[in-house]
């Protein structure tokens, strides 16, 4: 499991779908047909831009959510599918990357062969669990399967927080089958109780398929997960990089967290000579070691058996696939039918051979001119950010100078990596879906483990070019925009500048701003975790953040369920700051000229309508609950309205007045960067 836990992204956890975009009558690039003229932007910007679409569009049966991001992810998947089908028409030598892509995809798609094979492909793995005789063998099994099974102590590689030029092994918390510890701990929450019941049903189905005849097996597995959940840190606690940075040697870890054979674990995880690591949640690791030591071995073996079946459910026989969908699809997200098999195959292929596929993707779908235009946009946004920092009234000159130094050191990656990953040593066999997945996971972890305690390669990417997303990485102080997001509705070369700045401009501003949110602002321009603030400036910044927390705490996406403003603070800062910077960049681009009225909107109004339509989405209640629990992003309507309501430009563009639902007095508006 490659660790990208520190990447702060634009959007997470969206499912794919299909969506028509701009209406033919639009000359600005706005989707006028999806807007609702009966709703005033002064009352609800999100519904003014998306209201007709929201009321007339049904979420497809196989989707838990549906909207603008989903449109692009569907398009990206379709393009990858076309690449695979084109490669399948040619003849490629054994071992060629084209052969690997084709055979991997075809094997995943062949559910008839998967069903016919039954559990035979996974049986050796299940037998290896059954053969565990003692705690050292248990630790070795866990180490061997880092990256392929959700473990109580997952491992990953990332730049050392204090020495960001060196890669460091990090531990994390994990091993749960439900989305988050809250699903185990909030016993009085009816929605979560329903999810727990569905999970128990799912585990019973897995146990039956695995031949676990002991009726107490599932309750014992749930007891293991309950104990793990009780000692895990909350999502909010996991947003503090200072508390997450705990460097130590393996010997020190063994002393602090006794009861687990750390040496056998690291050796099996291909880390026999590890000099140092960082333990992200020390109290959890101590407790997890105790759980792994004092829980009956048979209980842990049953737990690993079900976790292993769950991890591989999509490439196991239909009864397991059906049970997995009933839980992971219907119970957790509200989906009514399964996602098409080909899209699941694309997702698996992207995980196994993502950059090999991406290399073809950019050749077909990302011309050099697009990269040049994006660099120009990024430079405009960076210039606007520089000017904005200079104009801050709440920050002293010393901290401003440090902020400018950090901004000047940003690394920008657009479209695709300059050097591509080598998959020569990954073996892919025709007709072996399970084996291909296992070998891909081990290949990826072997590559990751080989980086431990070695210099950081700043050329690497944390996402493939065909990924519809973007991210900021604090330890590399970089912003990254894969090719797949650089298209409508975010960026449209045929749209006017106002709409593009409200779309991709705000996306760029969002990612730049992550370097200055409550987490990213604790890292300096070299990527090191270091306090570059004066105490007074940090206190002023935190006071502004507290106001933003209070604003978002007040939103109630589901009856009785409020947003967690502390969990979503970083993304809310990035949304607000990104929108502010994009607007300034748009005004700079006008060169003092007044933009014309187009499609009935002034340039400033088109900017905010473009921002609104970027966040077009609707989701099922089960999915909303899941995201409210685990996602650091606010639901999309609150991203659209929550940032705009604090923006002076929004109030000026639409001339809001007291009594308008989105009116906010100037002295109460929250301004950050």
UniProtKB/TrEMBL annotation:
<dbReference type="InterPro" id="IPR008753">
    <property type="entry name" value="Peptidase_M13_N"/>
</dbReference>
<dbReference type="GO" id="GO:0004222">
    <property type="term" value="F:metalloendopeptidase activity"/>
</dbReference>
<feature type="domain" description="Peptidase M13 N-terminal">
    <location>
        <begin position="41"/>
        <end position="417"/>
    </location>
</feature>
<comment type="similarity">
    <text>Belongs to the peptidase M13 family.</text>
</comment>
<feature type="domain" description="Peptidase M13 C-terminal">
    <location>
        <begin position="469"/>
        <end position="669"/>
    </location>
</feature>
<dbReference type="GO" id="GO:0005886">
    <property type="term" value="C:plasma membrane"/>
</dbReference>
<keyword id="KW-0479">Metal-binding</keyword>
<keyword id="KW-0378">Hydrolase</keyword>
<dbReference type="InterPro" id="IPR042089">
    <property type="entry name" value="Peptidase_M13_dom_2"/>
</dbReference>
<feature type="signal peptide">
    <location>
        <begin position="1"/>
        <end position="22"/>
    </location>
</feature>
<keyword id="KW-0862">Zinc</keyword>
<dbReference type="Pfam" id="PF01431">
    <property type="entry name" value="Peptidase_M13"/>
</dbReference>
<keyword id="KW-0482">Metalloprotease</keyword>
<dbReference type="GO" id="GO:0016485">
    <property type="term" value="P:protein processing"/>
</dbReference>
<dbReference type="InterPro" id="IPR018497">
    <property type="entry name" value="Peptidase_M13_C"/>
</dbReference>
<keyword id="KW-0645">Protease</keyword>
<dbReference type="InterPro" id="IPR024079">
    <property type="entry name" value="MetalloPept_cat_dom_sf"/>
</dbReference>
<keyword id="KW-0732">Signal</keyword>
<protein>
    <submittedName>
        <fullName>Endothelin-converting enzyme</fullName>
    </submittedName>
</protein>
<dbReference type="GO" id="GO:0046872">
    <property type="term" value="F:metal ion binding"/>
</dbReference>
<dbReference type="Pfam" id="PF05649">
    <property type="entry name" value="Peptidase_M13_N"/>
</dbReference>
<dbReference type="InterPro" id="IPR000718">
    <property type="entry name" value="Peptidase_M13"/>
</dbReference>
């Amino acid at each position: 499991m490659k660790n990208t836990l520190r990447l702060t992204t634009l959007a997470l956890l969206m499912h794919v779908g299909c969506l028509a975009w701009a209406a033919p009558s639009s000359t600005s690039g706005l989707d006028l047909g999806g807007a609702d003229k009966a709703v005033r932007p002064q009352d609800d910007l999100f519904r003014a831009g998306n209201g007709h679409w929201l009321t007339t569009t049904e979420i497809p049966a196989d989707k838990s959510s549906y909207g603008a991001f989903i449109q692009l992810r569907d398009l990206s998947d379709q393009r990858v599918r076309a690449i695979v089908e084109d490669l399948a028409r040619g003849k490629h030598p054994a071992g060629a990357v084209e052969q690997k892509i084709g055979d991997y995809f075809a094997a995943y798609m062949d559910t008839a062969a998967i069903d016919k094979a039954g559990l035979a492909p996974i049986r050796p793995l299940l037998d290896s669990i059954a053969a565990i005789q003692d705690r050292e063998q248990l630790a070795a099994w866990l180490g061997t399967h880092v990256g392929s099974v959700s473990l109580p102590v997952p491992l990953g590689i990332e730049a050392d927080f204090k020495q960001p030029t060196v890669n460091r092994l990090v531990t994390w918390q994990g091993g749960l089958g439900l989305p988050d510890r809250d699903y185990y701990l909030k016993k009085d929450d009816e929605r979560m109780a329903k999810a727990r019941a569905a999970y128990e049903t799912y585990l019973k189905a897995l146990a039956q398929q695995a031949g676990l005849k002991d009726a107490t097996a599932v309750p014992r597995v749930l007891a293991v997960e309950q104990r793990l959940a009780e000692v895990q840190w909350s999502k909010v606690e996991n947003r503090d990089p200072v508390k997450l940075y705990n460097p130590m040697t393996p010997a020190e870890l063994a002393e602090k967290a006794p009861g687990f054979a750390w040496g056998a674990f690291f050796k099996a995880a291909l880390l026999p000579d590890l000099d140092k690591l960082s333990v992200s949640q020390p109290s959890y690791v101590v407790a997890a070691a105790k759980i792994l030591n004092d829980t009956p071995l048979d209980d842990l073996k049953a737990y690993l058996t079900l976790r292993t079946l769950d991890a591989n459910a999509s490439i196991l026989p239909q009864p397991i696939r059906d049970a997995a969908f009933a839980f992971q699809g219907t119970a957790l997200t509200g989906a009514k039918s399964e996602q098409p098999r080909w899209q699941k195959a694309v997702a698996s292929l992207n995980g196994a051979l993502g950059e090999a596929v991406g290399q073809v993707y950019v050749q077909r779908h990302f011309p050099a001119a697009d990269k040049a235009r994006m660099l120009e946009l990024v430079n405009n946004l960076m210039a606007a950010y520089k000017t904005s920092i200079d104009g801050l009234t709440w920050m002293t000159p010393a901290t401003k100078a440090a902020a400018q130094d950090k901004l000047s050191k940003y690394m920008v990656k657009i479209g695709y990596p300059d050097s591509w990953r080598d998959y020569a040593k990954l073996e892919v066999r025709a007709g072996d879906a399970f084996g291909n997945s296992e070998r891909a996971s081990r290949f990826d972890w072997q590559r990751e483990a080989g980086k431990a305690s070695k210099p950081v390669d700043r050329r690497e990417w944390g996402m493939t070019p065909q990924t519809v997303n973007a991210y900021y990485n604090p330890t590399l102080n970089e912003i990254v925009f894969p090719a797949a997001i650089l298209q409508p509705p975010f960026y449209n070369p045929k749209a006017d500048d106002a709409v593009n700045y409200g779309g991709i401009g705000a996306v760029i501003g969002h990612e730049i701003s992550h370097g200055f949110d409550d987490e990213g602002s604790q890292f300096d321009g070299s990527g090191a975790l270091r306090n570059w603030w004066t105490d007074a400036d940090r206190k002023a910044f935190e006071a502004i953040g507290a106001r933003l927390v209070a604003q978002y705490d007040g939103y109630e996406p589901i009856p009785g369920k409020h947003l967690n403003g502390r969990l979503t603070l970083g993304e809310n800062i990035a949304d607000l700051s990104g929108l502010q910077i994009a607007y300034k960049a748009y005004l700079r681009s006008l060169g003092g000229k007044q933009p014309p009225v187009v499609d009935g909107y002034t340039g400033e109004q088109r900017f905010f309508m473009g921002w609104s339509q970027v966040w077009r989405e609707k989701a099922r209640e089960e999915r909303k609950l899941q995201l409210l629990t685990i996602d650091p992003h606010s639901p999309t309507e609150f991203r659209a309205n929550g940032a705009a309501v604090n923006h002076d430009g929004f109030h000026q563009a639409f001339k809001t007045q007291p009594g308008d639902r989105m009116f906010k007095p100037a002295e109460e508006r929250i301004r950050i960067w």
